Amino acid sequence: MQYPYELDDNLFEKLGGEEAVRAVVNEFYDRVLNDSRVSGIFDGVDMNILRSHQTIFMSFMLGSPVKFEGKTLREAHKGLGITSEEYEIILDHLNGALKKFNVGIEERAKILAFVRTLKPFIMGQ
Fold first, then answer.
1. Which one has a higher pLDDT value, 50 or 1?
2. Rounded to two decimals, what is the model's pTM?
3. Considering only the top CATH level, what class is 11-123?
4. What's the rounded Cα separation, in Å, for the pair 97 and 100?
């Protein structure tokens, strides 16, 4: 996959590898699912599969040597109708999850900037 913004290749290892990414992903989804403003997006979704899938995607995104071979972002988000406001709420939850695990402000800024570049792929349905 090609993205308009590249993350630091060693960010995956710097953050603690797959175990750390899994912890952040789980915290992120716990936060999202407990927020009535966005939790409905995940109605009917097998969250165990999504958490596992997202751990692989986030690891790949952060520079893991494991290749991501799932659906494209457009395919994965097709028909969800995520609004710009919901996207920002979800980004806030990602920031909170990263912060909980003491990811530094510089690394959080890089990750959030990267995720912002994905918005057209996620909302361009």
1. 50
2. 0.87
3. mainly alpha
4. 5
